[in-house]
Amino acid sequence: MSALVEPLRLVLLAEQPEWAPLLRSRLEALGSCYPLITSPTWEAASSLFDDPGTGLLLTTPACLPEPGLCPLPIVLLLDSEPEQAPEDVYDWLVRDSLSVDMLRRCLRYARERSQLQNTLQRLAEQDPLTGIANRLGFHTLLAAHLAEFHGRGLALGHLDLDNFRHANDALGHQAGDRLILQVVARLKSQLEAGDRVARLGSDEFALLIDTRRDPQRAEKIAERITEALAEPYWVDGESLLIGCSLGIAHARADAGADPLMWHAHIAMQQAKASQGCTFHVFDERTNRGARSQADLESELRRALRRDELELHYQPRLCLQSGRILGLEALVRWQHPQRGLLGPDEFVPLAEESGLIVPLGYWVISRALRDMQWLRGRGLPALHMAINLSFRQFQDSQLLATLQRLIEERGVDAQWLEFELTETAVMRRSDQVQQTMQALGRLGVRFSLDDFGTGFSSFVHLNNLPITLLKIDKSFVGGMGERAENRQLVRAMINLAHNLHLEVVAEGVENAEQLALLRQFGCDQVQGYLISKALPLADLARFLVFGVRQPLLSGLPS
Question: Which parts of the sequence belong to the EAL domain (predicted)?
């Protein structure tokens, strides 16, 4: 009887008058007080029940509320035993066989089932570690508060911890849990009774802040929270500094829960772009920028499907022979409204969104196709240099996909060259070396792009299967103005040759630069002086008619 210590309030909906006296007589025989409320409809009785856990609806089929309208457990009252168990009800009672024991069992079962469902609902909406609401529970809470406040006097905070995953990996998940508990304690200490905090994910939190008394209260709390979370944490005797990025969005009368959470997320991303513990308040300019970025990402996905991308090729000239020895494949986007876009306008977005992997495979496939096309027109074989991002370099399907594409196009892999940046090569050098060696066994060779702009380790550089170093155009462009730049380029070329590497200078735009590079012993050059990046048909004409000799006077023919 423990489940019946606190009696349920029973609501009776029945068109037959005999149900009310029958139920009352059975309830009196139970020896406890069970209030029985009769009502013509559920709508008339619904205002009596703020808490569904305290009530039970007894109803005949004719009075049964529409699905979803009644939150109370429902027991169906029937004139005879049904052939099949009724759906969407807790239990049923048959009038002619309704005994005191049967009613007792029915009430106990309804109460216990209701308590179990309430418990499951609470667990579904509660973070098990901290006891605060989880994402589901917070979304429900936010929607209720927005409805209660009519979309005014509320601010939403979206907080993300910086470097939490690093601490979690270094100290272990149990220590990470203890760190999260400290974070929640600090958050609660900065909030008042009307505010709420929830855990949206591993290291993400939401704050619901009541701003009805003070419209600037959210910003004041955000400042206190960023200061509090910037203080060191002590976990297992270790002192940790974990920063945070907090986005604040103020509710508006015409916005629901989802737009408000999105606005707070955008503001949090803006805060994350700054250094250290900081917060950012959402504004429409931020929103327009984020939407523009999201729209461009969506358009880029469509561009990959609709074949709106194309490759242009910049020739690479050998300073010793005067012949074109190689090409660099450079992706372009023929945007329907904005015209031809260079890689700087969409490749960083592709890197950020993960589209760089399918984009990179498209570039490889198209470059191999064009290599086959050029050879089919009797042109000599040229090295095809393709920029390979670190994200694609990490893709487990790279080796198999490349091998398949090479076989499909019938291209000799020795003419394929991947350009990697210093940053990519120096990160996780063991994995990089293994992948490069596996690709090298196919015949592919590698060049190091933008040499001098990163932080190369010469030990790693000497151990990796790199054939060429490409000197960044920023160094080449400064040779005419500063002697220091000329000495730096000369030193880079000498260093590469001492490592038995060829050197390609990028961004060669005038004869003076070309002459200096020849004097320094540079092997190859590319830049506007030789040719800009050309579409495939223009490239074929350029290769047939040759390099313009007046610009390259003095080179061997």
Answer: 293-547
Residue 113 amino acid letter = R
CA distance 344 to 356: 13
Task: Of 322, 382, 330, give the one whose Cα is nearest residue 524.
Answer: 322
Which residues pair with residue 419 across a beta bridge?
387, 447
Domain 354-540: give its CATH code. 3.20.20.450
* The two structure tokens encoding residue 385: 């240099």
Q: How many residues does the chain have?
A: 557
Domain 135-282, CATH homologous superfamily name and number: Reverse transcriptase/Diguanylate cyclase domain (3.30.70.270)
Q: Which CATH class is domain 9-125?
A: alpha beta
CATH 3.30.70.270 residue ranges in the chain?
Answer: 135-282
Name the token pair of 413: 């892999």
Mean pLDDT of the chain: 85
Residue 119 CB: number of other CB atoms within 10 A? 10
- The pLDDT tens digits of the residues spanning 464-523 come to 788 999 998 888 988 888 888 899 999 999 999 998 899 999 999 999 999 999 999 999
- 8 A C-beta contact, residue 299 and residue 293: no
Q: Could you identify the residue written with the tokens 């901290």?
A: 130
* Contact assessment for residue 308 and residue 335, using Cβ atoms and an 8 Å cutoff: yes
Instruction: Name the phi and psi angles at 140, rounded to 5.
Output: -65, -45
Q: For the whole prediction, is pTM greater than 0.70?
A: no
For residue 457, how far is the Cα from the chain centroid? 31
pLDDT computed for residue 503 by the predictor: 94
- For the chain, residues classed under CATH 3.20.20.450 are 354-540
CA angle 183, 143, 117 (to 5 degrees): 80
Span 418-458, pLDDT tens digits: 998 766 666 555 667 788 888 889 899 999 887 765 545 56
Structure tokens, 150: 């009519």
Confidence of residue 4 (pLDDT cuts 50, 70, 90): very low
Contact 306, 363 (CB under 8 A): no
Give the residue, 165 or 265, on which the prediction is more confident: 265
In tens, the pLDDT along 47-88 reads 777 665 678 899 999 999 888 788 888 999 999 999 888 888
Task: Write down the pLDDT at residue 1.
Answer: 36
Look up residue 126 and give its DSSP letter: B
